[in-house]
Amino acid sequence: MKEFDLVIVGSGVGLTVLNEALERGLKCALVEDGKLGGTCLTRGCIPSKVLIYPADIIRLAEHAKKVGVFLKLEKLDWNLLAERMWSQIDESKEMEKGLAKVPEVEVFRGIAEFTGDYTMKVKLHEGGKYSEEFKGEKIVLASGARSFIPPIQGIEETGYVTNESFFDEKFPTKPYESLIIIGGGVIAAEFAHMFSAFGTKVTIVEMLPRLVTTEEPEISALLLKVFLKRMTVHLNKKAIVARKEGNLKVLTLEETGTGKRQEVKAQEILIAGGRKSNADLLKVEKTGVDVDQRGWIKTNEFLETSKKNIWTIGDANGLFQFRHKANTEAEICTQNIFNNVKARVDYSAVPWVIFTDPQIGHVGMTEAEAIASGHQIYVARKNYSTVAKGFAMGYERGDTDDGFFKLIVDKSYQILGAHVIGPQAETLIQPFVYLMNAGFTCAPPVEQVGTPIPKLRRACPEGGSFFPIYRSMVVHPSLNEVTGWAIGSLRPVNIPHEHDHKHEHEQEE
């Protein structure tokens, strides 16, 4: 049986750990079922943004009439969009060629599964045969996740696409004429924005009562209002039956409360109803790795699994499935494997952006989460239309698409969460990520042998608060005023006997 110093399953962020191991001269094995580079490079964030940015331009051009500029889309060059997209996905080929030249790593192409303690085999792509068993002294599971396919009668016979197959063999030769999207989360919202901008007749089917349920309810509500002007949205409905009808695909929907049924038709069906763990494919139970009730691999604060010398990073642990979070985990995992001093992962300020239109930015808790966690909080909110730059960009009070910023802080003014919906949300949210991490020192090495030192006990008095913004000049006119001046409108939510706060930054609205 072959033995390796380190076995890595998954070539997304797993490559970060692999590179460090190779630098140290270790004998390694890498197992990958798909294209090298993982979800982000080959079927997720990067190729989708190559297509979404042109959609952003189209929507911006449509909005321009509100400021007196009338633009007309002359042509959408789908072939050029596709060429640029594939140029990014195809970087995986160069990565594979590069790894083939490294003698210290053996690459297995197929699906890994455990056979016992620290041993596994791979169902190879070629011929469907299994590799010989091999063993890893240390193992990192960066095995990702896959699309969850809901139990819809006839869906396999009818056919569908997922983000995996869309960025692979089912990529269309032109934009769909019509598209049904099952799901109302991040992937669904981004694809809906993209294809509706390209002229596709889009229908969203979501079984929950609102879109993007990870966000504040008022953000979901604003997104829905905008979407309803561009597409059909069915909430509180689930698809139960699928069939073909000529060149179209038909879904039977059932309303969750009443059981009332209706049919919707489209050229294609995109399933974007959530992600599923790959732990079942890995058969992790054979090596003693525990999973939670939903099948995600359990990890502790050091990214260790229940089995010594086996770590899990990225989407495989089911926590905050974003590449930047996975990158951070890969760095921490690398340190914990190869250094004597362990580092803990901190998920208190994980940001994300939904690249739909209007764009959504998020870091930290929602208002409901903060209250449920026992915090007494202040909340501030400010609309784009209330600052000069927002008005200059064509946003006025009462507009359906008038975005806003929402800030949640506790009694000590520690930032608990920040949320943006509107143009440049990706940029406006980032300073609050920095603020939530500002003023905290690194935990001393002795921390690993005792009770972890709480984050706030490692802070300067104003660590993680909004005071750096409150005491700073804000560029005028700019959208930074939406976030900077929001602090002046802080109001207590569940803090008794507190007077409303008004600060010098606040302008009368």
Brief rundown of the structure:
This protein has 16 helices and 21 strands. It has 509 residues and is of the alpha/beta class. Strand 16 and strand 17 form a beta hairpin.
Let me know the largest β-sheet.
Answer: 6 strands, antiparallel
The portion of residues assigned to helices is 25-40%
**How many helices in DSSP terms?**
16
Terminal Cα span: 73 Å
State the name of the first-level CATH class of the largest domain: Alpha Beta
Named CATH topology of the largest domain: FAD/NAD(P)-binding domain
Instruction: Assign the structural class, choosing from mainly alpha, mainly beta, alpha/beta, alpha+beta, or little secondary structure.
Output: alpha/beta
CATH architecture of the largest domain: 3-Layer(bba) Sandwich
| Residues in β-strands, percent | 15-25%
Overall, the morphology is globular
Count of DSSP strands: 21
Q: What report would you give on this structure?
A:
This protein has 509 residues and is of the alpha/beta class. A hairpin with a 5-residue loop joins strand 11 and strand 12 (261-266). It has three domains: 2-43 and 87-147 and 276-338, FAD/NAD(P)-binding domain; 155-273, FAD/NAD(P)-binding domain (3-Layer(bba) Sandwich), CATH 3.50.50; 358-492, 2-Layer Sandwich (Enolase-like, domain 1). It has a six-stranded antiparallel sheet, with helices on both faces. The protein has helices spanning 14-23, 38-43, 45-63, 78-89, 91-100, 155-158, 163-166, 186-197, 217-228, 279-282, 323-338, 367-372, 388-392, 425-437, 467-470, 480-484; strands at residues 2-9, 28-32, 105-116, 119-124, 134-141, 145-147, 178-182, 201-206, 232-235, 237-245, 248-255, 261-266, 268-271, 275-277, 310-312, 351-354, 360-364, 377-383, 404-410, 415-421, 491-492. The radius of gyration is 25 Å and the shape is globular. Helices cover 28% and strands 24% of the residues.
